[in-house]
Amino acid sequence: MCYNNALDCAAWHSDHLKGKIVEMNVQVEKLENSMAKLTIELPAEELEKAIQKAYLKQRSRISIPGFRKGKVPRPIIEKMYGQEVFYEDAAQTIINESYPDAVIESGEDIVSKPEISVTQVEKDKPFIYTAEVALKPPVELGKYKGIKVEPVDTVVTDKEVEEEIKKELEKNARHVEVTDRPAKNEDTVFIDYSGSVDGEKFDGGTAEDQKLVLGSHSFIDNFEEQIEGHSIGDEFDVNVTFPEKYHSESLAGKAAVFAVKLKGITEKQLPELDDEFVTDVSEFDTVDEYKADIKQTLEDKKKSAARSKKEEEAVQALVEDSRIEIPQPMIDTEADQLLQNYDSRMRSQGLSLQQYLQYTGMTVDKLRDDMKEQAKLNIESRLVLEAVADAEKIEIPDEDVDKEIQDMADNYGMPLDNMKNLITETERKNIRTDLKIRKAVDVIIDSSVEDKSKKTVKADDGDDLIEKKIPKRKKKSEAASEEE
Q1: CA-to-CA dists, residue 176 to 173, 187, 387, angstroms
Q2: Is residue 284 situated within a structural domain?
Q3: I want to staple 109 with a disulfide (CB 3.0 to 4.6 A). Which of 128, 136, 165, 195 is the partner?
Q4: Is 153 among the domain residues?
Q5: Gap between the Cα atoms of 348 and 472, Å rounded
Q6: Same domain, yes or no: 128 and 192
């Protein structure tokens, strides 16, 4: 079965029914820590339908002497293998078809995958199973207005503007061959090298026409510095020592000698910052206009980063001031969703989750466990924000939901009508809830106060409030490069 975000699990089912069970009895037993047990009973005829489905699905694989394959009557199979031969498949079918309706029938806000147990499956008797689930826990909301946050500096300096302009100049730089001087820092050199330890060459220590930017620190410490001062055609030795913590144990801490031949040098020549350059790389006509736009862009980024930082700080303070007991299955369900999202991001970058696990030496269980703390933070943040929205009686008009759907259509380059056809009632409800949460964040931030007793911090790119990404692990370097 398929399940959505932990907070939207119950709502998901109403739009994804596999079948429609006309008659059922659902009893709800409340357990400790926001858990509940649903006992779902269905008429014997529903079980009979499911058994018949299982028979039709399996009969092509059953051979009995005297009958053509796929033509064995069901009573003959049941007589030979026992009536329970089709029970497992039938139970799976009837649970898949009935559970979505049972969720709605229960009237509970279910926020986890169900733990299913079949308690009665017997011909001509009602089919009974239980589903242990987590319910959305109550929130004892703390003080959400007047939260103190750190002051954040959003001032853009002339130096920052110049650094941004330099990046653009670097993008448009020309690389010019140098023949009349030795190599120096920031030059790009082309070298052949062959490394050895105690006179013996080692794997990965040899290359031809290797491109290297001096000062980039992409090779072992002191390697690049020893190339500086040499001219094209020079052949010389570079002496280095591999780090004690190096990915190749056979080289760790060892002294090595690289025989190097310098074959070429190029230097970077930046274009002149003038009106002509500005018109080539931007929509502006003058350097002053270009600088003013860069400054405004940097200010907007800093303000956005500052707000993200304040949001994270304020919501975390509210979580700490509130009381929520989150059932473990709710955290597990959210962690599974994070893992699924992470897998999707990896695939969008051309790497499968399995490849990532092989590369890092991790397991799926370890990665999921690492995500559980973030899952808990996600749930806590969302629950307190939903509680603020309820406390403030925030309502979202239909036109705001429609605008959000329009934005989604624009982002996907899709006609609005097509996008509307894809949006189910549950998804529309989720959009409305997300908009409520955004307004709840506005309430918290607009009423927050800067704590003057704290040192002003710089605006940094903030993590997403509801879902933070798990950082990727860095690739191991080549043999001649230092491992980070």
Answers
A1: 10, 10, 62
A2: yes
A3: 136
A4: no
A5: 14
A6: no
Q: Are residues 264 and 293 in the same domain?
A: no
Q: How many domains does the chain have?
A: 3
pTM given for the model = 0.70
Q: Is residue 185 located within the same domain as residue 313?
A: no
Of 134, 166, 191, the one marking the end of a domain is 134
d(CA 254, CA 256): 6
Is the per-residue pLDDT at 384 higher than 70?
Answer: yes
Using alpha carbons, select from 269, 268, 287 the residue that is nearest to residue 279.
287
SS3 state of residue 371: helix
296 plus 423 within the same structural domain? yes
Residue 80 lies in a domain: yes
pLDDT tens digits, 248-269: 888 889 999 999 999 999 999 9
Q: What are phi and psi of 28, to 5 degrees?
A: -115, 125
Round to whole Å and give the CA distance between 224 and 349: 32
Q: What is the pLDDT of residues 30-64, one digit of tens each?
A: 999 999 999 999 999 999 999 999 989 888 888 88
The separation between the first and the last C-alpha atoms of the chain, rounded to the nearest angstrom, is: 43
Question: Distance between CA atoms of 34 and 137, rounded to whole angstroms?
Answer: 6
- Structural domain harbouring 348: 280-458
